[in-house]
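This follows on from our talk about sequence and fold. Can you supply me with one protein entry, sequence and fold together? Could you add the entry underneath, on a fresh line?
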Amino acid sequence: MGLIQVATTTVTSPTASVILTGIDDNSVYMCVVSNVSNNSGNYQLRMRVANGGTQDSSADYDYASKQIRTISFGNNAVTNATFFGATTTGTATNEVQNYIFYFYNWYDASEYSFWTIEETSFDSNSRLTGEQGGCVFTQAERHDSVRFFTGNSVSSEYDTTQGTFTLYKVI
C-alpha cells in the first residue's frame, strides 16, 4: 500500500472551515487530521461530504463508534444527523484532536459513501480518549471533497484555530 498526497491545509489562525478537494475516482482515500483545536469553547470537530466544495447538510449521516477513555468506555450511535460529529474539546492548550479517516465509494454515484474513523484526543474534561467506528452517508451520490468545521449545536459554527488536514489517495 502506498499513498499519494492529494490536498493539504494547515490552519494557524481562526478559519471557518477546511475543504479538501481532489477525490476524482473510486479509489480508497485516507484523510489525516492532526493537532486540531479551537479557542471558542467546548465544541466538536464536524465533517460533511461535499461536491465542488459545496457541502451536503441533509439529515443522512449515520455513525457508530466505541470510545475508550482513561478510566471508562462508551458507545456512540447517531442516526439521521446533518453532519458527522467528533469528540468535544475545549480551549485548553492540550485539548486537541487527531484522526485518521478512510473514505470508501466517495466518487461512486450509485453507492452510499462511507468511512471509518480512528481518533485520539484530549476532550473538554481533560480526559485522554480514543475512538474507533464507522459512518455512512445514506444517499447514493458522487462526492469529490470533504468539509471540516467546528460547532456546538445543529446550526452553530465556530472557527477552527489550529490543525493540519491532509487527504491522500491509497494506491
In short: Residues 64 and 112 are 16 Å apart (CA to CA). The chain has a mean pLDDT of 88.
